[in-house]
Amino acid sequence: MSDKTCTIRTRKFITNRLLQRKQFVIDVLHPGRPNVSKAELKEKLASMYDVKDNDCIFVFGFRTQFGGGKSTGFGVIYDDKKAATQFEPKYRLIRNGLAKKVEKSRKQKKERRNRERKIRGAKKHSATGKK
Asked: How far is CA 90 from CA 66, 117, 122, in A?
């Protein structure tokens, strides 16, 4: 399946110095294929923009047009890993393998929330076990 080609175009390219990243909309043309994997898109973007570390590239929010053949999504390239871990949401870091998912049971979350409800002010953090 991966022998069929896909074409990547970027639009609305912005260099965001405040968040230390380049951000853009990605248009992927993939006739004859259902979609293109994010790993493949990362590799192509790394070669297009001379990125040394693929962990600094995040692609998300892809929608395939009706009838197939074209997908549109969003892409972000951070200057370094430190900036990525600082500004990127935790769930996206987990998806890209830069953070570990903390497994908490549903019951633990509920008990903690209920303890927080009973206490007001600065004491709230000490009751929940936060530092």
From this structure: 31, 25, 26
3-state secondary structure the chain: CCCCCCEEEEEEEEEECCCCEEEEEEEEECCCCCCCCHHHHHHHHHHHCCCCCHHHEEEEEEEECCCCCEEEEEEEEECCHHHHHHHCCHHHHHHHCCCCCCCCCHHHHHHHHHHHHHCCCCHHHHHHCCC
For 42, the token pair is: 């990362």
Quick: pLDDT tens for 95-131: 988 889 888 899 998 998 898 888 887 776 666 665 5
